[in-house]
């Protein structure tokens, strides 16, 4: 079955494509690890064709709506940022990309920037657009965990301000490449170790770089196992983030947008602070945002 | 010329040997990258012989005094930690290692541990011993920058307490392997960018994980160059550390033990806080500690 259009989330490390049928139905979805970080400008079209070229109709043209890092300066084509305060950029602000293959009609959705403090997002604005489809009157704060966790203040359908924390990337680097790697591999997650680490980092954020080394020392001296050690590593970094993001979440209605262990960790840590928090599964949020962009494009064409 | 003894500083990543003559003269020094992290237990003796075997006397036996990670559980032989409060461990606490080559008589000096908060050092205790040779009455705080920076409270010739910060390792990981790597390579050091970053992190330590991402965003949005970006990365991490180590240095007499840019950075940051600080070149400090150990050993043998 030939797709009506393609929804594409093209991040730094991964490429994800949904083949879309009539009425927003998903005919198929495909993934590859040919993220923007691995590609030069002229490799984007071949990478996309390698993944979905077999599904494209002969003689027809398929709209391709792209969000994420493919729109960065080092990406497929630069889609200049919208600036806060602003609604998530509509398809009207997208950049049309000329392709060699006539079957593709590519549009890249812009990201959002903030001048002070300097900050940027690419991809999350489309998740936010998807979130607002379901809850257009939401007034509060979105927390989008990931490699670079975003805290986003939403009001009246607009992104008012946002802040990015490198927590996920710090965790990955420390878990895999630091001296702590000897102490945090394997074992089961320990919720108590996580909770007390969040508490420690929130009450004394400045000592985090020392508390990190103490994970190693406690493993050596007290035989603390990898399960509680890894939970403590996560808790220290998320606690540091929650302390820094307090102006965002304190007294606000919070939605953690995500799934799995990482979303649960943020949810639990916020709930332990007495915050008003709910988790909204992030899976499909980007797709919903891309679908809205496509529908707007189609209506404009009619 | 045949050495009287060998002084060895065997860390995680490097092996450093001084060939010592009469009256503490250094005949030669040699280095290799065969650090403890790359070796299994039975590879230590061959690694040492590969580096200095040619200089050993036929038929004689040469004392070898070793400090550092070679004494860890994964090292050549475990030299159990001394526990604070304590003087830097003397040669009497060293572990004698049996070797296949009869020309070697190896002693590994123990490290120091602290139960609460859990912390360990291996190698720095010998630098501290060397420092105390020159300044036996020192009462104050040593700051030993490095991959894992140590803050050490010294009084009456003893290590009273200490704390390790992972600042150097965090800097290396973020500089080389994180998204910031695109923004911090090349350019000249900018002292102003460093100083303002230290100030920012000390006054708002909790926001460091967000300020780190802002380095990337400021490079993208404002064209901030790699020189000031790298200085800001360093300043944020050192500022976080100084905020966490404040109970160590506030109101104390401080000696930064080290050399080069990293020692200067700590010195400048502390001086900007109005702290009483001097820098003592760390080069030779470990050697001085090892020499004291050897002299004690020789006197005991007489």
UniProtKB/TrEMBL annotation, chains A, B:
GO biological process: D-galactonate catabolic process
Single GO MF descriptor: 2-dehydro-3-deoxygalactonokinase activity
TM helices/strands, residue ranges: none
Keyword Chaperone in annotation: no
Pfam families on file: DGOK
InterPro entries listed in its UniProt record: ATPase_NBD, DGOK, DGOK_C, DGOK_N
Keywords (A to Z) from UniProt: Kinase, Transferase
Descriptive protein name: 2-keto-3-deoxy-galactonokinase
């Amino acid at each position: 079955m030939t797709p009506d259009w393609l929804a594409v989330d093209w991040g730094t490390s991964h490429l994800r494509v949904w083949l879309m049928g009539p009425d927003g139905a998903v005919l198929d979805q495909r993934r590859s690890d040919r993220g923007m970080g691995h590609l030069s400008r002229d490799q984007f079209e071949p990478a996309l064709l390698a993944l979905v070229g077999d599904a494209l109709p002969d003689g027809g043209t398929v709209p391709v709506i792209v969000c994420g890092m493919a729109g960065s300066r080092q990406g497929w084509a630069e889609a200049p940022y919208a600036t806060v305060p602003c609604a998530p950029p509509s398809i009207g602000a997208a950049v049309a990309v000329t392709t060699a293959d006539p079957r593709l009609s590519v549009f890249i959705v812009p990201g959002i920037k903030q001048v002070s403090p300097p900050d940027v997002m690419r991809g999350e604005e489309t998740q936010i657009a998807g979130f607002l489809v379901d809850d257009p009157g939401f007034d509060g704060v979105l927390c989008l965990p990931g490699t670079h966790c975003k805290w986003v203040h939403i009001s009246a359908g607009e992104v008012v301000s946002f802040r990015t924390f490198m927590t996920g990337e710090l965790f990955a680097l420390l878990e895999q490449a630091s001296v702590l790697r000897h102490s945090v591999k394997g074992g089961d997650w320990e919720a108590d170790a996580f909770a007390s680490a969040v508490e420690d980092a929130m009450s004394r954020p400045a000592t985090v770089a020392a508390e990190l080394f103490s994970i190693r020392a406690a493993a050596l001296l007290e035989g603390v196992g990898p399960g509680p050690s890894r939970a403590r590593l996560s808790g220290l970094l998320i606690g540091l983030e929650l302390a820094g993001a307090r102006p965002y979440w304190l007294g606000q209605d919070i939605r953690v947008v995500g799934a799995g262990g990482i979303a649960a960790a943020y949810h639990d840590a916020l709930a332990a602070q007495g915050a008003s928090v709910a988790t909204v599964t992030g899976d499909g949020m980007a797709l919903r945002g891309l679908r809205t962009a496509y529908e707007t494009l189609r209506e404009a064409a009619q």
